Amino acid sequence: MPIPQRTRRSPALRWALAVAILPVSALAAGYDIPEDGALPLGQGGTVTGLLDTAYALQFNPAGLALGTGLDVRADLRVIDHGISFARDPRVLPNGNEIDYAKVSNTGGLYPAPRASASFRLPGKLDFLGVGLGGWGPPGVGRYRWPDPAKLAAQGMEGEELEAATSSRYSLISSDIIIAMLSAGAGASLLGGKLAFGAVFEAVYADVAFSQSLVALPSADIDARIDLTATDVFTPAGLFGAAWRPVEGLTFAASYRTIIPVDAPGTVGVQLPEIAKNIAHVEGNKATLQQNLPFLGRAGVSYARGRFAGSLEGIWEGWSAVDRLVVTPHDIFIVDTAGKKTKIEPIIVEKHWVDAFGARLGGSARVLDEGTLPGLTVLAGGLYEGNAIPPQYQGVDFVTGSRIGVSAGLSGAWKGFSLTLSGMWFTPSTVKVTDSRMPRVAATPEPEPQIIGNGTYETSAWVLAAGLSWTGYAPEAPAVQ
User: Fold this and answer.
1) Which end of the chain has fewer CB within 10 Å, C or N?
2) pLDDT tens column, 406-427
3) Contact, 294 vs 258, CB < 8 A?
4) Residue 448: CB partners within 8 Å, gap ≥ 6?
5) Residue 479: is its pLDDT beyond 50?
6) How far apart are CA 203 and CA 78, in angstroms?
7) What is the pTM of this model?
8) CA separation (Å) from 88 to 85, 97, 292, 446?
9) What's the confidence (pLDDT) of residue 411?
10) Structural contact between residues 71 and 131, judged by C-beta atoms closer than 8 angstroms
């Protein structure tokens, strides 16, 4: 990832800024841990069979025209994304070998709320439906790795400190908030057999990262980088279509556009004491630019009697995450003589690839609503491909190719329903031997240390609860 040199000292902040945005790929984690909503989660992430609910606003707005009246839904989901990294040993110039400790993400449970409401208009306008809601993408927004500053304060130093903090040049911490406020409408034709819909999304993104770089390579003295950036408004769109040729059978497809994040913010560089006598940084404003991927979905569902099932394919356009760009605004390096060197825009290539997946899920109503609440059992599974080439794998986000299995229960009573569901992903291991990720130094090292080689292990589980109310009782839906 070479960056052109302009002066003897200009690489210092250029590399500092580059390292600050390396972990921003975690921002694109948005669609990788499905699925917002307790009902979709319990059914393996499938949504085609739920188009007549307010979930349609998030997944396929054609369904807004297929409901039966007012439908309101609120969900809360928590994710535990376990990641560990065992970096390959490093041989020092003196012949000694550093065996790195396995490090793990300690970010803990990450909550993700969502809410939406849909309404199919009555009377002569019953071919129209509208919806309003808000949520975040189904990703994880908080990661924590060993902090070298805290360990140094406890007395660690030298090779012991390096062995305990193998992720410090990739990520120390990250906090991401992505929120989408959405409004949409759908229309049906041919007596409800064909429907189309569109949603306008206003996206808010707030990101914060901390990471280390080597300020003085000869002594392995680190500086710390802190980046914060906020994009208060980015427009995006979701479009969908559905076809119901016969009762109970639904074909559907949807497409969410690429989301171009353009976030102004600040870059803070904490220099070690030895470097403060040589130069200092003037200015801290910068803009972060990165795309979030498009998402295509197509599926078929069939419901008959007490049973319903769906099969879907997913296309996640991670190739949109081809590069990250940070544009500094009047940031200079000032040397002891007062000479200023302006920092130019920085481009970091990511080279991610599109990923594909399949989902299968369904429901079985085991108890009809009567003197007791109705009860429906949910189950499903999915497969997801890996979008990150091994050469660019880092600790900021690890998935690998994986399989998820899910289950849930949904109870219904007088228009209300409560759903509890969960999904477990099989553990995945990614072994990297040809990493292109060097540690970042203030001045380029003759032989850069590659920090990405090693074994990445990941696992995840998700729990969700959803509450809904249907103002106009639908005609015997499979799940409410």
Assistant:
1) N
2) 999 999 999 999 999 999 999 9
3) yes
4) 438, 439, 441
5) no
6) 21
7) 0.89
8) 9, 10, 31, 20
9) 96
10) no
